Please model this.
Amino acid sequence: MARALRHPGDPDALEVRIAPMRRRHLRGVLRIEQQVYPRPWTFSLFLGEIGQRHTRVYVVARVGSDVVGYAGLFKAADDGHITTVAVDPAWQRHGIATRMLLVLARAAAERSCRNLTLEVRMSNSGAQALYQRFGFVPAGVRKGYYPETGEDALVMWANDIDAPTYAERLARLEADVPGRTVIEGGWV
Model:
């Protein structure tokens, strides 16, 4: 049974640690995965993804010792593909996804990506709004992309993430996140 996580009442008191996803985090990752997705990824799928460090970047967000979110990036040529972003429902709307996306966008730029792309459910207007803050714009639709529901996916792209103007965008987004973010691992 998943334990109930608690967050501070004061957003400025929140400290979130972003670290590379490791095998030891997968129990917490899978707990969230099973809560937020109708067709959750498996332990072995995550293990395979985090084992490909040359082309993948997966992070977890922790508050204390609890995993409260995770996100992933796949690098192909000079494009980065955001593969997953998930936040524990109890921690949504606390800037967790924003913090993880900041780390992934910077990691993509440092790995010579020029663009970022992702797919998002057509019905997920909250996620679409978040991605738009990161400069993602709609570029197409993948019909029936989500097989468990048949829902379409909106394809979004953020271009020129290697430009100084994009770094400035990220700095503005970061300045708006309440509380403190600690980046662990020295790898980004």
User: Anything to note?
Assistant: Confidence is low (pLDDT under 50) at residues 1-5. DSSP finds five helices and eight strands in the chain. The first strand starts at residue 15 and ends at 20.
